[in-house]
Please model this.
Amino acid sequence: MDPQQPTVPGAGEPASLPLAGVTVVALEQAVAAPLATRHLADLGARVVKVERPQGGDFARGYDASIKGLSSHFVWLNRGKQSVALDLKTPGGREALAALVAGADVFVQNLAPGAAGRLGFGAADLRARHPRLVTVDMSGYGGDGPYGNRRAYDMLVQCEAALVSVTGWPDRPAKTGIPASDIAAGMYALSSVLAALLRRASTGLGAQLEVSMLEATGEWMGFHLYFAQGTGHAPDRMGLSHASVAPYDAFPTADGPDVMIGVQNDREWARFATDVLGRPHLATDPAWATNEARVRNRAGLNAVVAGITSTRDGRSIEAALEGAGIAYARLGDVTDLLSHPQLAHRGRWRPVQTPAGVVRGLLPPFTIAGVELPMGPVPALGEHTEVVLRELGFPAERIAALRAGEATGAPRAVGVRAAAPVA
Model:
């Protein structure tokens, strides 16, 4: 076989997980970093989550909606190993150092400067472990006038102007999901994958930094360019679109509103004729072009709503489908749990938690021939003993660490080397 050619699984043979053999150590809490590392676990990495012995990741206490467990924690932490270490003690810090020495990736999102004060600053770690990929996650970045400011999702949404463009014309709103946390988590994920890919050819790790403000700023996208070009931000539009019409939710006679999006003048002609039954609107100068429809949005929406409100949702959807017009029904979260498309594509899997089995969505990346793992959600400190034993810590030292009595880990412990990425 040509050694330059990649091997391909045979018929019926499962492909290996993309990150099999990669070890990630995460000193993490809340949402942003745990989301990034959970996706690394989804791709096959071993993720060791280091938590405080008392309470652990504070997201464990956000609510008790999943059989007494936090919905945030269940969402973000499946497939990880939980190791409880008191990093205020020398023994806890030496145990973490031993973990990091055998890792490929180290991720942290502690309060500004906290990792460095514990002895786990990125520059020091990279000097000791050149192949290590370090990821510092924060609200605003490690320097500058906001560098030491504590940050939470809604606060960053405000600073990044996301709140200012979300909501209705007379009032702003935050997004219904932690968008700034998620943005930072996804950029951390993609940058780690890029760093591991580069390491495969150079042998060198990387020092990465991801801030919630900068991640959300990138997501502001066209609003930034619109404001540069016009001197003002686009108006808040609720469910409407600032530059396309009709693009809004319209009432039906029997239930949820239907969201309709007409993207161009050709679609408008079909919509007016085949859905509204008003072919003259297709050529009326007040409606014929998108620019005219945006200018006359209020009157246009009133005409469309006046027609859709007299018809049941199924007939409206059938007409939209036949005309090739994009639409959606306004469902709620319970509707998503039973969404027919997710059911048809088999996107749900059982996930084990300390409180029993729940349903979890498969990660949104589908890799042909690969079944991504949906590992269990760990109890606090569930894997402390097994992981420390792997590092060579004797039973009495592990017991002392677990009890918070350690004054220092052994100097001569065996550290399992992480399997190389390439």
